[in-house]
Amino acid sequence: MGATQDTDRGAIERWWPHLSIEAKHRLLAELTGPIDPDTAAEIRSLTGEDAPDRLTPAEQRFVLTQIEPVD
To answer: Distance between CA 15 and CA 43 in Å, rounded?
Structure first.
């Protein structure tokens, strides 16, 4: 099991790349806060599993690495 995966929800690596730009912006605006209902619904539709209430610290780090420019 990866560091960013929880046993009762889909791994962020599986759903983050497929989220809409709007959902990504909502998550980034409140990275440490609760996941809003629209974003949670989108995660559920992508994974077929319940969305997390909020991102774990490891998931937050994963998201931040996905938005950093690469040299």
So the answer is: 6
pLDDT at 71: 57
If phi > 0 it is left, if psi is from -120 to 50 it is alpha, else beta; for residue 13 that is alpha
- Alpha-helical (H) ranges within 1-71 are 12-15, 21-29, 37-47, 57-67
Residue whose pair of structure tokens reads 């990275």 in the numeric block: 31
Q: Hey, which residues does 34 pair with through a beta bridge?
A: 54
Inter-residue contact 57 to 47 (CB < 8 Å): no
Helix, coil or strand: residue 54? strand
At 4, the amino acid letter reads T
Reported pTM: 0.79
- Tens of pLDDT, residue by residue over 26-45, are 999 999 999 999 999 999 99
For residue 37, how many C-alpha atoms fall within 13 Å in the half-sphere facing its CB? 0
